[in-house]
Amino acid sequence: MEKAAGSPCVGGSYPQKNAEILSSQYGINLFLAGLLLTFAWAVHAVGISKSHLLSYLITLMLIQLLWMLWYLCRSCTQRRLIRDKDTHAGARWLKCGITLFAVITLILDSFKIGYYIDFSNCLSPTEGIFPVTHAVHTILQVYFLWCHAKDIIQSFKTLERFGVIHSVFTNLLLWTNGVLTESKHQLNEHKERLITLGFGNITIVLDDHAPQCNCTTTTLCSIFSQGIYYLYPFNIEYHILASTMLYVLWKNIGRKVEHHQQHKTPFKFHGITVGMIFGLAVLTSTIAIVVVYLIQIGRSKIKSELALTMFYLHAIFVLALMCTAGIVALLIYRLEDRSLDNSKNPARKLDAELLVGTAAGSWLLSWGSILAIICAQAHPKYTWYNLPYSILVIVEKYIQNLFIIESIHREQEKMNDDIKTLRIVTISRGNALSLTPSYKEIYNGRAVPDSREVPCLFKGSVCGRENDSGGGAKEETSQDESSVMHSASDFSFSSRHSVTNNKRRILKNIAAFLFLCNLSLWIPPAFGCRPEYDNGLEEIVFGFEPWIIVVNLAMPFSIFYRMHSAASLFEVNCKT
């Protein structure tokens, strides 16, 4: 009988597990087909043009648009139904972030439309259809994520799994397309910079897939072509954020959740002044360094070397500060005795996996630089700064990952019952003249209606009561003893509370500082300040083409790591 009773549960979960496996395999094959098509276009494979790639991407976006419209219409017809929500998914700050990136992506699409109009004589119609479709896709997808990122789907589960996973890999392919286009633009200027540094023996033909006709309005074409590549970093971040939010939605399909109240943790500037000041100083100096780097690099050999030296020294200083802050935070955690929250949480699990997975991109580049410095026969002076820089990149990510992952897994601190209870009792001449009900009782809606009896707050204390018999001496002694013990207890509780508040204040300042530092370190590679390209030493040791391939594969993960770390640290600051 027990087996028969348990069989429906097994039978119900088995098809859903199959649906999860089938949908994931569908998504992977969808992605691999698009990836090979992208690679074939990049290497000028016979019979493959950019129009083929764009047609594939347009088809995927149209299918996702149809699915999202169907889901939104079905949701509108079922508005009165109570649905389960994942309170950890789709945080408001994450939605605001993706909206900002989406707005800039729409500007990018408008630039692409203008670029197509100016070169319409020699461009395929798909290059005009693509940005229009992408703009519509972006608007509807952001609306969908704002309204339904927290949904836990319990109906049409098999169909929804395929729809959501299709959306995940569509965004990943759009991210890949953006990364490739942006990387090709970076390579166009890379060879000239290496020649100015004296690496003239490196020869390779670079192709930028430029249109084979003249622009109708030269000024506008220049604005559009240059502006497009400065906006690509935001487009790349938009698609990777969208894919992660959709992945959490996919993992939540059919999930059973425990219904418990989720406490909101709003961001507050109070108490993080020190961290914000130091972080803003790092952000400001980083922007200045990037501007000077982009102006000086490639001008002459001396200016390029000075630009690289300046970048390395600044990065070494910032990374050393970040390592120190991370170590202090971990030491504070070691001094605290707080349990970890090991409950099932797809969003939190994905955050931890993305931190470690994307950090591998920076580690790969750093180990390549370290190996090149060790194996190279000639070492220009500026290349020696690359050694401590690469080592610190590896160490800093180790420490920061530990801090973030432990922070998001720590249970939120609960206020001690002893601190919650307000021990305010005024006794005069044997009578309890005033008695303030405890915070705990007010919080639970139970204030003490009778002031004739004061609850005992700790063992050995004297409970204040009205004394009808008037034993004066005993009562005064009792009051004195009670007053002394209350004072000692209050001092103990307040000192413990003060220490806890100091620790929390330090942790919040560290999280705020690391948040701004990660935003600062996201800016240089996202906007073309990439010493891994311009250093030149790695190209000599590994060869130009192999090293460029390594950089182009690892750099997008490194860029995403910084933005994802900043988002995670923002959450840590709110939670602490």
Automatic annotation (TrEMBL):
Membrane topology field: Multi-pass membrane protein
Transmembrane segments annotated in the record for this chain: 26-47, 53-72, 93-117, 129-146, 229-250, 271-295, 311-333, 354-379, 506-528, 540-561
UniProt cross-references to Pfam families, sorted A to Z: Otopetrin
Chief location: membrane
Protein family according to the UniProt entry: Belongs to the otopetrin family.
Cellular location(s): Cell membrane
GO biological process: one example: inner ear morphogenesis
Gene Ontology MF terms: proton channel activity
Protein name as it appears in the record: OTOP1 protein
Keywords, ordered alphabetically: Cell membrane, Hydrogen ion transport, Ion channel, Ion transport, Membrane, Transmembrane, Transmembrane helix, Transport
Span list, region Disordered: 466-486
